[in-house]
Write a structure and sequence with these properties.
This protein is mostly helical. The protein contains 13 helices and no strands. The N and C termini lie far apart (45 Å).
């Protein structure tokens, strides 16, 4: 538990600090210039995904602790890797950056609420009380404080922030791998017993997340580059955050397994989705990105 209490929040802090190094106040303000695309993507992330995940959890009949773990994953904001995928498949990267910033702030409120509701519904043993104010404050500290620190460093020393960008990104990937490995090792028996079940629901949830994130904006007549950005923002979750909340805040390593499995599967699935979207309907030059 000492590892979960110290190392995991520290690992997430490094990742969120790296996110802050890439952000400026203009990234938040940019949403005002493209409110429709941002609003639709946020609606998919905050409203549709939890509903879809809840339906899948009931359909797959997950054990209560894993069911809450899936809902915790669904409540987590988009991961920073969404920016890379958006760049590779000609999405509106500026929109991704803005959405990641806004999502990280909103998640401080929505993540505890959705997790509370999931705990109250599934009642996984001694967690029936749910997240309390102290736990919500912990979420706030480990999410927003490192981001604010990174933004401050960028403002005071742009050159240093730019030089640190690549090392922090590499460190973030390495940390994600270690966090997932630690989650699997700490609850290996439970994972082995539910591997096919977790792999199945994680795959379906990932495909549906990407599809909803792309199709809904397109139905709303939003340009394809912004729909691509929305797809990756909605489909690539911050699995590290979900793992840290499960292990470091709630003290339940077994609850982190859905996020650990999703964290492995989402990258190849997102790559295949990006190839499918690109080949199905190539992006035109008039993409209207900011």
């Amino acid at each position: 538990m000492e590892f979960a209490a110290v190392a995991l929040p520290l690992a997430l802090g490094i990742i969120m600090f790296g996110l802050g190094l890439d952000l400026t106040p203009a990234d938040f303000a940019r949403v005002a210039k493209q409110p429709k695309a941002a609003a639709v993507a946020l609606a998919c992330q905050l409203l549709l995904l939890p509903a879809i995940c809840f339906g899948l959890v009931l359909l797959f009949r997950l054990p209560p602790i894993l069911a809450v773990g899936m809902m915790l994953l669904a409540a987590s904001p988009g991961g920073t890797t969404a920016n890379l995928y958006s760049h590779l498949f000609r999405g509106d990267v500026a929109l991704n950056i803005s959405l990641t910033a806004i999502n990280s702030v909103i998640a401080v409120v929505t993540l505890p609420i959705l997790t509370n509701l999931a705990i109250a519904y599934f009642q996984p043993g001694d967690l029936s009380v749910g997240l309390q104010f102290r736990k919500t404050l912990e979420v706030f500290l480990i999410v927003l404080v490192p981001v604010a620190l990174g933004m401050t460093v960028r403002r005071l020393s742009p050159g240093f922030a730019s030089a640190m960008d690549k090392p922090v990104r590499i460190a973030s990937v390495a940390i994600l791998v270690l966090v997932i490995a630690g989650s699997v090792a700490s609850s290996f028996d439970l994972l082995a017993a539910n591997f096919l079940l977790l792999g199945g629901i994680a795959t379906v949830f990932c495909v549906l997340s990407l599809t909803v994130g792309y199709v809904v904006p397109r139905l709303m007549k939003i340009e394809k580059p912004r729909a691509v950005a929305s797809a990756f923002e909605v489909g690539i979750h911050n699995a590290t955050l979900a793992i840290v909340i499960a292990q470091g805040v709630l003290g339940r390593p077994d609850m982190s397994l859905p996020a650990a499995v999703y964290g492995v599967l989402m990258f190849p699935i997102a790559a295949l989705f990006g190839l499918w979207v690109s080949r199905r309907n190539p992006v035109r030059e008039d993409k209207g990105s900011v």
